[in-house]
Mycothione reductase
Amino acid sequence: MKGGRRGPVRRRPYAGRVTHYDLAIIGTGSGNSVVTPDFDDKRVAVIERALFGGTCLNVGCIPTKMFVYAAEVATTVRDAARYGVDAHLDGVRWPNIRDRVFGRIDPIEAGGRYYRVNGPNTTAYLGTARFTGPRALVVDVDGREEEVTADQVVIATGSTPVVPEPIAASGVRFHTNEDIMRIDELPARMAIVGGGYIASEFAHVFSSLGVQVTVITRGDALLRGQDAEISRGFSDLAAQRWDVRFGRTVAGLAQQPDHIAVELSDGLTLETDLVLVATGRRPLVPEGVDLAGIELHDDGRVVVDEFGRTTADGVWSLGDVSSPYQLKHVANHEARVVAHNLVHPDDLQEFDHRFVPAAVFTHPQIASVGLTEQQAIDAGHHVTVKVQKYGDTAYGWAMEDTDSIVKLVADRRTGDLLGAHLMGPDASSLIQVLIQAMSFGQSAKTLARGQYWIHPAMAEVVENALLGLEFD
Ligand SMILES: Cc1cc2nc3c(=O)[nH]c(=O)nc-3n(C[C@H](O)[C@H](O)[C@H](O)COP(=O)(O)OP(=O)(O)OC[C@H]3O[C@@H](n4cnc5c(N)ncnc54)[C@H](O)[C@@H]3O)c2cc1C
Ligand SMILES: NC(=O)c1ccc[n+]([C@@H]2O[C@H](COP(=O)([O-])OP(=O)(O)OC[C@H]3O[C@@H](n4cnc5c(N)ncnc54)[C@H](O)[C@@H]3O)[C@@H](O)[C@H]2O)c1
């Protein structure tokens, strides 16, 4: 078994007994990586109620991007004629795509589980943890309660989908990211509720694979957290591909013999075959945190300081349950910081949330880091902006690109890059050089002229954007 130590499953602690550990970790997403070699001679309890590896591995980043890749292949075939290459999409074998994705992921989950159950210094509790007091937990393992105490506890319990009340109360079967990727067959029609990351990625996946997609979002644009130019540009493109109902919510669902009736807040009703809910995710805080002295923000996140310490002595938190960012690379970073801090109380490291990038793997791809133009203005910067079209560079000509842009926001007095917002092919990779410059304090000029840019690579669009910024 991959990564696993062979041998008998260790006997679990019996019911009614309190077992004390050096460290107890709740959640095996990024929490799983807190068990570093520093804990080789320590006793560690790892508690997981569902799938080992958490959201990203099982129902998030990794499977979605594997589906996105298949969607990109289908899109490339469909669009081939514009390059003088005649091709035809003969069909999409959904079960094969699905089984290829989970044929790779499920064994990794099983291997992670096996390793924690049989690992040299970890005891796995396969159940739901709740706090009963300071650093005291009860884990419900199939109805049997096991008590765990620890010198230090890490809360890494992630987040869970928010389901609007009219949908939850309708009694009609709906899907979220937790189960949509395992459906038996593609529906003819799909209604996606929400206009953020998850809606944009799944709308791309399913429409590319041949599903007729309707997006229902309460805002007047998709991806409203992005720079206004990106959000507007993407919304326009999306409205050409999908039936997008802006400014609407779902008032109710009704199961009809051959379809689902989706009643919209504007009074209209549309027919669909499947409803996917993607209206945000809320922190999944273990029960009983109040008994343990752990405070929460108004939005439900666990309060942590810059070192990952909660308001309770010896209790730490990381990832979606406490972070202002619901992103895997942030959860991983926070896990590294907490892992260090657990064993170096006199040399605490801080979370680095200065330049947190994100990408939306939709079509076209979107990537961003730093301030939007409006945020930079509001912050009082002397703002200079350049919007560079991919289509005005050599590689953009090759791609016949008409929609893609790199938008840079900088301070015209200091020369510092303040933000980067990309929409177009490979945006999630092209942006890395800009993240690097911001993280290491390189000015826009240094970045543009302090290195070679390979000609005529796609990255020239970034070089040209940098050269287009005007400084005092
Ligand atoms: C569809 C989708 C696509 C995404 N794509 C990306 C992407 O491309 N890039 C990116 O950066 N981010 C992406 N994300 C976000 C990313 O998945 C999360 O930010 C990240 O997984 C959070 O990690 P975590 O360790 O905080 O929580 P999780 O990975 O959710 O882990 C928490 C674990 O805790 C367990 N748990 C919860 N409560 C208890 C309890 N009381 N007792 C025991 N166990 C418990 C859960 O079962 C879970 O396994 C995506 C998210 C979704 C939903
Ligand atoms: N590529 C990535 O990094 C990636 C991919 C997927 C998810 N994620 C993470 O997961 C988080 C959750 O994703 P998400 O897309 O669910 O949330 P989101 O916050 O990105 O978007 C939620 C959307 O739902 C809309 N909405 C909310 N309530 C509604 C209602 N009742 N009716 C209609 N629309 C409604 C909002 O206006 C918004 O457009 C993201 O914020 C992101 O941090 C990241």
Remarks:
- The longest helix spans residues 94-118.
- The chain has three domains: 18-160+282-343, 165-279, 364-467.
- Confidence is low (pLDDT under 50) at residues 1-14.
- The CA atoms of residues 58 and 105 lie 7 Å apart.
